[in-house]
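Q: I'm writing up a methods section and want to include an example of the input and output format. Could you take the sequence below and give the corresponding predicted structure tokens, formatted cleanly so I can copy it straight into the document?
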Amino acid sequence: MTRDVIVVGAGPVGLMLAGELRLGGVDVAIYERLSARPTESRGASFTRRTAECFAQRGLLDRLGPTEPAESHFGGVPIDLGQLPEDHAGARGISQYRTERMLEGWVTELGVPVFRGHEVTGFEEGPDRVVVTVDGPAGSGRAAARFLVGCDGGRSTVRARAGIDFTGSEPTRGFYTADVTGIDTRRRRIGENLPDGSMVMAMDLEDGVTRVVVHERGMPPRDRSSLSYQELADSWQRLTGESIHHGRCHWISCFTDASRVSSEYRRGRVFLAGDANHVQPPAMAQGLSVGVQDAVNLGWKLAAAVHGWAPPDLLDTYHTERHPIGRQLARNARAAIELRLTGAELDPLRGVLADLITYPDAAEHLAGMLSGLGIRYDLGPGEHPLLGRRMPPHHQLTLPNGTTTRIADLLHPARPLLITTTTAHPTAHAWTDRIDIITGTWTHQPHPTLHTALIRPDGYLAWTAPGSTHNLTHALTRWFGTPQNGTAR
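A: Here is the clean output for your methods example:
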């Protein structure tokens, strides 16, 4: 049996990708090395754009209550209240909670998740990839048309594909732990200390506090030798507070290394999430950028499976997402230096704090961190929304009088052609793969937007007014040759 796609890794990125593929009608399975879902929480927050990605699939409400997260760069706060859009992410959400939500979703969609099955290698042929899997019953093989490694920073898929993973070497170490029974002062964005040390404490759920410690001069650590006593000793030296009495539910460490894959695709093999990019978790970016990788790739792979993908559509996954990964690595290095270099960088911190009192500068920096600043090259044109995500809260009034949000219209993960004034008979040749919606904007976007072609990932591929190319060109560019081979 040859499936359409095998996804390696059942973390948030692998689960999100599998759900995207299944919505696209793809036969997909997930192979996961671990026999049970982890109970620790490596990621504890996600960005605004990732919250929007969840909302586009009707998933955000499944997470339950969330709290808005403050924004900062290297510990320098950004006042989000001065911006025209809400850039605040969500904080205090354990990764376990996110994974549980996503696994419930993909299970409802019929995606099999094979836990306790480790993919140890693969062979790529002209029309399929055959993977070697070690599972409870021994070693076996499975085949698929495409393979996606969502298997983390030590990705087996990336290593077997021979894809370079370049970046900075680790120089600093950090402790992190989830603890109950402590009432230390909360330091949600982290607190920089004058000598280049830092501490962070934020609430998760069920009385759990996430603590992070870096003590100046602390080298990268080996996870196997960690102890809560060492973390608590360091915390007390830096803050004067004792958390020794707390109950440690999970402890780990990380470094200041940042790396990014040289290729997000090689042939029939793709990478997503931490397999593509790793960086210190201090900016709540890793999980978030990985989920956005999945949303960008899913509909494109589905198009290839169904045979209507334009020739270079799969290549746009690398060209669109690789720059985001490189920016992420650069920003992480800059933020760590800003946070952990001592008082000698106070003048630079002061300059940055002054700059981001200007709304344009604050919006640019916040946009990089929230994901709302992403703009893909989706074609020439002048409309400021072209290539950006369509704000999901924008509402349409439909001909039957009901009102709906863009986010709700994107639940099926299908392209949308929204038109408010002019019929577009050209588009009817693509109705097997796009949804045509007629209505009126509850609040007209500014500048005026009469027609919007929105990809399944929520990004605007064509606008009227604004785009230079005609609609037929845009439809063919992103959604292939029409069903009957002609377009008017």
